[in-house]
Amino acid sequence: MSSVRRKRVVVLISGRGSNMQALIAATMDPAFPGQIVGVIANRPDAPGLDTARRHDITAIAVDQKAYENREAHEAAVLDVLAGLDPDIVCLAGYMRLLSATFVLRYSGRLINIHPSLLPLFPGLETHERALAAGMRIHGCTVHFVTERMDEGPIIAQAAIAVEAGDTAETLSGRLLAAEHRLYPHALRLVLDGTVRMTNGRAILERRAPAAEAPDGPVESPRMLVSPDARRG
Length: 232
Description:
- The structure is a single chain.
- The protein has helices at 18-27, 47-54, 70-84, 100-105, 126-132, 168-191; strands at residues 7-13, 34-41, 59-61, 88-91, 110-114, 137-144, 154-161, 195-198, 201-204, 218-219.
- Helix content is 30%, strand content 23%.
- Strands 3-2-1-4-5-6-7 form a seven-stranded mixed β-sheet, sandwiched between helices.
- The chain is built from six helices and ten strands; from the N terminus they run E-H-E-H-E-H-E-H-E-H-E-E-H-E-E-E.
- It is an alpha/beta fold.
- (6R)-10-formyltetrahydrofolate binds at residues 70, 95-98, 112.
- Its EC number is 2.1.2.2.
- The active site is at 114 (proton donor).
- Pfam families: Formyl_trans_N.
């Protein structure tokens, strides 16, 4: 009896790749519906490359400084990706803006984790901005990547409380723990077909009880929070 094929996942990083490590840990379970077949970094000194190699994962640096412009570098990354033949590409602290060409190539198969409850606080310095706005909750979002930065359809979110005396550093540290639980959860939802992107929206496939015939997909809710992530 043949086993079910696990889908191929490639992770793009720029630094230590702590969310990448959470994905690696999750995919070490043979029951997880995907396996990480490659890690690509835009910096050859990214510590996450060594982490991937210690887990016998192909790790490739495509040094952005070796190319004359973003287009040339991105074309090289796309060539490496083509060789790895991913079903899903995960951005995990990849600090490069992606062109429309790149995004469209992997439309519906490219996901990212962002440290805020989107659509609040897209871009950088999310923790500082949440504190400055007087937020009482903060969080993280996994979303499909589209041509507009941090505006893709939401797959899953997790929230944490903003505590008295929090700084950007303390808030970031607590949120990171929630990110490490949320990203594998969201990746599983995409890999097993529970959530997919259709016509620019995240669609949640309704799972009917065994005695009830399924009646098609429904639009995904804005919040799909892992039970574990609630404890972040």
